[in-house]
Write a structure and sequence with these properties.
single chain, mainly alpha
């Protein structure tokens, strides 16, 4: 046999056997090692995709929750405004009620004061009548004691008025 590239046939045979055994070993190891690694990488890729999808779903859900909370906050603000408006109306009604009661009380107080004034006027008039009666009694007593002429009567009137004085008439 002739030598190829000046190589020994035994060397060529060993090289071919070695290449076949490396190929068989590579094929065998690819099923044993590369396939599990590929499966592991595939699972990792699937898990990452799943995590990304889950994160996207969580983000969408969070946005929905945020929108829901913002709507609730707006509703709460509207409710608060409604409650405040109702409270203002109630306060105005209470204010009107209190003012009406105060006006009624003032009217009653004025009526009582007027009644008291009327009573005081009547009392003063009664006192004045009593004073006039006592003056008339004094005058009658003096008239009876003396015989009276018009001059004497005028004189007695003036004297009596002077006796009573301005104090009785002014008070």
């Amino acid at each position: 046999m002739e030598r190829l590239f000046n190589l020994d046939p035994q060397l060529l045979f060993d090289a071919v056997i070695l290449a076949i055994s490396v190929f068989v070993m590579f094929t065998f190891l690819s099923y044993l090692l590369f396939n599990p690694v590929r499966d592991m990488l595939k699972k990792r890729e699937d898990r990452v995709k799943n995590d990304i999808e889950t994160a996207q779903e969580n983000k969408e859900e969070a946005l929905k929750l945020k929108a829901d909370y913002e709507a609730r906050i707006r509703n709460i603000e509207k409710e608060a405004e409604g409650i405040l408006a109702e409270a203002r109306q109630k306060a105005l009604r209470n204010e009107e009620k209190i003012l009406d009661e105060a006006k009624e009380e003032a009217t009653r107080m004025i009526a009582r004061a007027n009644a008291q004034i009327e009573l005081d006027k009547k009392k003063a008039a009664d006192d004045m009548k009593k004073e006039m009666i006592s003056i008339a009694s004094l005058m009658a007593e003096k008239v009876v004691k003396t015989s009276m002429t018009e001059e004497i009567q005028s004189q007695i009137m003036e004297d009596t008025l002077k006796e009573i004085g301005d104090q009785t008439w002014l008070s």
